[in-house]
Amino acid sequence: MKAALLESHCIVSEEGRKANLQSNLARGLPLLMQEVPGHERPLLIVGSGPSVSDPKTIDYIQAWPGDVWAINGAYDFLLSHGLICEGFFGLDPLPQLADYLRNANEYTTFYIASMCDPSVFDVLEGHKVLLWHACAESAEIFPHGHKAVYGGTTAVTRAPFLALSLGYRDINLIGVDSSYSEKGPYCYEWGTYATDIAEMTVPVMINGEGPFFTELGLLKQVTQLGTMLTMFNGKIEMLKIHPAGLMGAFMRAPMLDDSEIEVIKFDDLFKTVKDAA
User: Fold this and answer.
1) Quick one: which of 6, 121, 166, 212 is 20 to 30 A from 105 by CA?
2) What is the Cα–Cα distance from 3 to 251, expressed in whole angstroms?
3) Could you tell me the pTM of the whole model?
4) Which numeric CATH code is attached to 14-276?
């Protein structure tokens, strides 16, 4: 039986992200410096998963009673259905992030990470932009006193933490399938944007469901979202995820009660191994 090591890294080096940071701070754009007091406005964060193209999902988003943020290509997709989002969330440090912003609307506030490529801010000249620091290797690279937003490795797993800093306490995720449909990995046609996924595809089964076709970054996203559900949902349920695709199967998979898990003491395990020898 052979095993392969799969590892993912940010495509832009730490030095490159630092250079972006210095260039972007020099623009004097509004910057998130501290947390905003909590409020009651519900937030729906829309990913680009294929489930978003379902007419029922589109109707659900259009009827949402609070604010709507879109991530990457979901922004244009919703625009094509007559929905202008309150927010656009951007994290990717590649210059191709600007490709998602070619139809930027003046109504939208663009929440862009401070380490994104400067060309992104060129495209957004004259639009409402809020700069925020996405903590990666270390928060020490940011100026003293600046707030850093922690979170996961993808835009989907980072956006809820920014929302929390902006006072949202009812945060909802939709379109975070983390797997592909027969038509492709997105709610829009694959190849629409230069940044569309072109990674190795792997089939995954969960609790008899599947196979779901996905890639390494999205597999990480599923596990991080699972952790986030526990982190956010203490006494108050602040994070809800609409189940779809691989993420939906992950949420449906039963967890064993701890009474069903047999705990073997180290001494007993050592004795068993010694007897077998």
Assistant:
1) 166
2) 27
3) 0.87
4) 3.90.1480
